[in-house]
Amino acid sequence: PPPLDLEATRDPAFTSGFWPHPVEGGMHYMGRRWANMTTYQCASTFNSYGVELEAKVKETAYSPAAGFKMTQQMHADLLAAVPASHRRFLSEMQWVHEQPVAWPPGMLVCVHAGLQEGVSAEEQLAALRARDLSAPALHDCGDKGRNPAFCGRA
């Protein structure tokens, strides 16, 4: 599949509530939101690797009293703290697990946040198997910045 321009997944209308710093290779908008919002409980991940987050004081219209002061140093600290074996595990992880079962319909399908209603399951599964973020079947109503299989249903 053609590579997806990860930086193009953020709607330019969004001006706060996401990781603002450049990331080599780009960062999908969902990852940018995760890394700067208390809503997604990223602090537990950062803390599990020994990287402390400092809560923001400034409230935003999008997320009152939520979020963290995110510095480029924190990004560097997290990258340095995550062992190579963890990075390899995450980068090689399947996006979908399909397990034959003895009961109808004969297959158990596991996806992080589920498949999107109203979109062909086979198209979504094919894109997930191929790890293809550019596949329209994975976009929420054409929005390449939201992927229900990873963040919840539309």
Automatic annotation (TrEMBL):
It comes from the Eukaryota. PANTHER family: TYROSINE-PROTEIN PHOSPHATASE RLPH2. This is Uncharacterized protein.
